[in-house]
Each structure stands twice: as C-alpha cells, then as structure tokens.
What does this fold into?
Amino acid sequence: IPKVCYDTLEGTQFCTTDGIGNVQVFVYNAGWCGPCNSEMSELSHLYPEFEGQPVIFASLSGEGWSRGAKPTAQFLGEWKAKHNIPFVVAGKYRDFGKAFNSPGSIPFAVVVDKAGNVAKQGFMSGSQIAMRVRTLLAND
It folds into this structure.
C-alpha cells in the first residue's frame, strides 16, 4: 500500500504503512459531510467487537467542520468527542484517499489485509466495513 502520513490528534504521525501485519481500515471523511458523520457514528459503535484483535482503524479527515477548513487539532478533538471514537483520529488537508485513487468523494474507506493488499475500497457504511474486517480476520 502507499505510504501516506497524517497528523494525529495527539501531535504524532500516523502512516498507512505502520500497521502492516494487521487488518487496517482507513476511513476518509470531513466534519461537514453528513454521510461521513453517520458512517463514523456507526463504526464507533461497532468498534468494541474488534478490540484486542489484529486490526487498526483510523479516521482520516481531509477537512474540518466547513468546506475548505483545515482539519486542525481542535477539529480532530471535537470530531473524536462527537463520535466517541476509540481509535486513531488524524488529518491531512484535502486528502480524501487520493493515494488509493479515490474519486475525491467522501466518505471513502479502504480496508487492507494483513499482507498490505487493498481488500476493498469505496463508499461503505460502518456495518459494511465491519463485515469486511470480520471476513479478513476469519480467513487468517
């Protein structure tokens, strides 16, 4: 998979290649995007099922609460709190998954298998993402 790094809420870097050896889920979003908010709320509720398993989730925001707004640390903190996100929250301005040939529309999700291969990408609801992760974990 391509290596792309994002600034986390905690002020560190999260890179897409850091988690190879785990199933990885990258969810590209923006605060102003209604479907992104729905997807993240659903995924946050499903996440506890995967705790302790070899899977990494990341919410990757390309913009903040309004179109064109940078995903600042303040926005990322508010986004995490609004959706009670228990996993990585990071941002990179105007990056909506272009490294994965995203059409530029959001929400856009990428699910990567343990070998680092893209298993599924595109628009997926939180439950569709969870179903794909379950399948990859079961196939190990």
User: Anything to note?
Assistant: The first strand starts at residue 5 and ends at 8. The longest helix spans residues 34-46. The chain has a mean pLDDT of 95.
